[in-house]
Amino acid sequence: MTTSKRGFMESAWDFFCSLKLSISLLIGLAATSIIGTVIPQSPPREYLESISAAKIKLYSALGFFDMYHSWWFILLLYLLTINLVACSVKRLPRIWKFISEPTLIFDDGLEKTLSLTHQFKMEGDAATLKEKMAAFLKGEFAEPVVTEVDGEYHLFAQKAPYSRLGVYVVHLSIIVIFIGALIGSFFGYKAYVQIAEGTSTSLVYKQGEERPFDLGFAVRCEKFSVSFYDTGSPKEFKSILTVLENGQPVSGYENIPIVVNSPLTYKGITFYQSSYGPAGDGAVYYFTAQNSKGGAPVQVAARKEERIPLPGGAFMRVLESTQDVRPFMPMFSGPAVRIEYLPASGEPQLVVLLRDYPDFDRQRGGELIFTYAGADEKFYTGLQVAKDPGVWVVWAGCSLMVLGIFIAFFLSHKRLWFRIANGRVTVGGTASKNQPAFQLFFDGLTEKLKKM
Amino acid sequence: MNALLFYSTLGLYAIATAAYLAYLLKPQPPLGRAARWLITSGFVLHALFTLSRYLEAGHTPITNLHESLSFFSLAVVGVFIAFERRYKVLILGSFVTPLALLLMLASSIYPSNIPELPPALKSNWLLVHSSLAFVSYATFAVAFGAAIMYLIQEHFLKKKRLGALYQKLPSLDVLDEINYRCLTFGFPLLTIAIITGAIWAETAWGTYWSWDPKETWSLITWFIYAALLHGRLTTGWRGKKAAILAIVGFGILLFTFLGVNLLPSESQHSYDRLLGGVDK
Fold first, then answer.
1. Residues with Cβ < 8 Å from B60, sequence gap 6 or more?
2. Which residue from A30, A391, A406 is facing B223, i.e. has the nearest CB?
3. What is the pTM assigned to this prediction?
4. What is the number of domains present in chain B?
């Protein structure tokens, strides 16, 4: 019983240490990740209505609608982590021993394993040669360790032995990044808030939660502005924000402009420019109405949907407005409104007015000619609110990963051995990476030795 | 001026590709030298085009398909020239320059107007993140070329038909070495590109990772090349298997670059509309 149990434990350990598992997990993660890019995640209702009920049942059972958080995908990530740890635990002690207890004796067995070796005849007794070679190695490569065995001298020198650890630094960095992500998911949140210009709020709405969450401080939107390119595509969205504690502005956090790519952070909570829109019915639209037969124009101020009386028994009502008419009428630009005009007698008419084309309404040939002078319109700014205490752990992991990858890919563990025996000097060397470059170095070294 | 530079580059790449293909059939040193000279001059003109476009637009010219495809091609040619200098395998050009030419031809199909920069792209990360990504793509493109050569060469060896082409292609060892070298440059570059992308996403969208299709596909590419790197540690994965995986990896990478646009759109968040069609 105990033996089979032990056998199971051992085979489980071997399973988790295997390189085959690493490769299968990497390819498995790559293959399954595709699912979430083909099936919409947290899909909108229109999508759900477009597929069959059986499909919906199957997809929800398999967690395909939130695939990257499904139990099996998370399981794959955990397996990868265990695999990383197991591989490192198994191999690290060996590598450590390799670094800390290098082979100091340059015997025949070692010589046979090296592809780069060279032998010279040299004048002088072994002790003098040893001193000479040790000084040479120190000057050209690295300080050697000298060992004497039966009157023979063995010199060993190495460079960048720690480059062998690079790959474990990368493995560690992945675990650090995972820890950062876990911290973020347990102690952080993502929320959204809309703040109308001139108002403030301390309540934000967390993802997937109905009830608002109190930040403990308030944010006031002083102003929101949007600018456009000539083609009508947006150029910049800008909110001016002030942080309030107990209703009082916090110094250093007053009138801070935020745009996309430049958020505001206060007490670990970051506000990102995310969207915008008209703030309810706050806007007041200004018009003039003039009789086509002449006379002084009449000034009209109206709120949306408000029925406004006009001279001569007519009425008007603002239906909708836009900051930029180009998407609807590509020939024109600038703000526009659509109003309903109810003449004293006759059918109601829909009239479009353009602020930057005051004569536009003359073409209609109506009894009254309108111009639109613009609106005193208020916006709300839509802010993404995020708290993620794990983000710095993630960045630390990323830095560690870049460092580890640099060590693992670009630093090479180079080793040189010299043996001095019977008036002969034997040189051997090897490098863990970029053997051709090391060979050039080795050839240069032996050339110099020949000239000594 | 821009159009002149663009079409001169396209022309030079076309002639260089023809020269490299001719070299494949008749490997004479003068022809090889001419091909190398042509591709290098093409590269210089291409770099000038990209620079002039940068100055005219005021931002890195990689914000629409015309610019991105051209930038990709520039990176492929640049990385190829570097590898060619290093490994002295001129014939690699016969397999890589057609790809650069193809990318330029694709670029020429798309409108060359200078796009207005949507708010999300107004960041210094645009230059850093995107150029790192494209150089890593280019390195994998060279690996792709070497992998195809490997499979052809291997095919000849198996059939024992050591014909003319066999003699012209480098040995399997050299090709496998190039494949591996590309991986050792491409993988770190891809990693840094993904990390800079995450930093950028954090400042622009408030989250360093949101499983957006582009992010996911770049991670898929990373997984595949990581698998290849680990596979190479076991002897069975060198050579042919590594070559096949380098080809598969490049296919996935092309999908990450272009195919992601074909996927059903994911998000209904208001800021997606707000940020406009972002060609990451």
1. B54, B126, B127, B130, B131
2. A30
3. 0.84
4. 1
